[in-house]
Amino acid sequence: MTPQDMESRIVRYGDLQPCKTAFIDAHTPGSDQKENFTIIGGGVSESPDQHVHISIPHGFNIGAAGQPPKCRNSLHNHRTAEVFFVLKGRWRFFWGERGDAGEVIMEEGDIFNIPTNIFRGFENIGTDYGMIMAILGGDDAGGGVIWAPHVIQDAADHGLVLGENGKLYDSKKGESLPGGMSPMPLLTKEELAKVDCPSAMQVVGGYVRRYLDMVALAGEKPVKVIGETGIIRDKPGFEVDFITRGSATATKHQHDRPSVLMPVKGHWRVDYDGGSATLAPGDTMSVPENLAHSAQPSMTGEAALYHIIATDDAAGATWKG
Question: SUPFAM superfamilies attached here (predicted)?
Fold first, then answer.
């Protein structure tokens, strides 16, 4: 693997290309300043404007959401796993059809394995532009987003209609539903009754892990954050490890499928057969299958990164209420 080949598999934070029209709430006041990023895989965007940085299948998708202060992402549901870690800022995650069933405040480095089959949203409550990085289960990210009914209704009041084909049509651009196309139907009362609504204690206790707690757990081996034997015991179709300076090693290893390295603190030098690269927080590196590699901090100071690799588990439901 040449350095040029590997550089094509690194998405630098400063090179991320945002989409401001990715979802149905792109015109809704309070949500109209958010930016969506699809880093690896097709993502779940409803807009043809969404740029995909790396389209190579990994068994999961990597994305990100960037939002200024007080901007929120509207309440929605996914059929597969959705994991976030906070890269920059301070964020409030909330859930329930109206967002009032529970909430958790998350700081930089914290990670949240959001259960499937619950409506969830998030808001930047910091004082500057914030960024959260996302892992979505499956190569097709579960077939899109399921919106709370009021989100679809609010969007229509501001000119955006979601077709039953999962695509957006913007009346402000002169667009309308094609002939024979119906709008995406709202969930019925019966369907809404089947959506889970766990308590804050159930969600925070089972699915949130704090950065400083993981640093304290870190020793000479990486902390398995999400996995069958992880500190979040789940099988969402991928595993997530947390690596710090003490658990990093110069010994090279390889996997039989692509893996992803995502620094959250410090700079990391990745040595691989054929060359090396240095990653900073916010960078995303796709390591090819069967390529021997290692990752170590390249400077003194605090250093941590998340490592993601697919498993053979179905990217299915995580909530076990």
Answer: RmlC-like cupins (SSF51182)
